[in-house]
Write a structure and sequence with these properties.
Layout: H1 10-16, E1 28-29, E2 36-37, E3 48-49, E4 52-53
Antiparallel strand pairs: 1-2, 3-4
């Protein structure tokens, strides 16, 4: 079994974790309604995805 020869320093450990930060969510403006939505997701108000109806619209 592989065992580290030396303890990993805090500097090395933190350099490895530099890519672990969370990014902010991205949003795009819907062409039809003008509201913000996540890319590649269904618009829940209209039920449209890629220009076609995929589900019935959500009612308030």
């Amino acid at each position: 079994m592989a065992v580290p020869k030396r303890k990993t320093s805090p500097s090395k450990r933190n350099m490895r974790r530099s890519h672990h930060a969370l990014e902010a969510n991205s949003f795009v403006e819907d062409k039809d309604t003008g509201e913000l939505r996540r890319p590649h997701h269904i618009d829940l108000k209209t039920g449209m995805y890629k220009g076609r109806q995929v589900m019935t619209p959500k009612e308030d």
